[in-house]
Amino acid sequence: MYNLGDIIMMKKPHACQNNRWEVLRLGADIKIRCLGCGHQIMMARAEFNKKYKKIITQQNEVHRDQETFYIDPRNIKSPNQLQQGVNLWH
């Protein structure tokens, strides 16, 4: 099955003619990003399972130089890390 960060193929290509997507969020809804144009789509898991075709690359096999839109999980920052030293509660 698919996991967070996997590169997957859908049954039909996106409008940009690319058929490669990165899984960004898993849950009741699934969020994916087109690796051709960067467009993000969120859909219900049942709908995704109907449109999903196969896994191209699993997250642990991704090389950042091959995937231009791939987000390295080590580089994801929480909101607290983005506001380093800024006091939001004056």
UniProtKB/TrEMBL annotation:
Please give the superkingdom of this protein's source. Answer: Bacteria
Name the InterPro entries for this protein: DUF951 (IPR009296)
Note the Pfam families from the entry.
Answer: DUF951
PANTHER family hit by this protein: DUF951 DOMAIN-CONTAINING PROTEIN (PTHR38455:SF1), HYPOTHETICAL CYTOSOLIC PROTEIN (PTHR38455)
Name of the protein this chain belongs to: DUF951 domain-containing protein
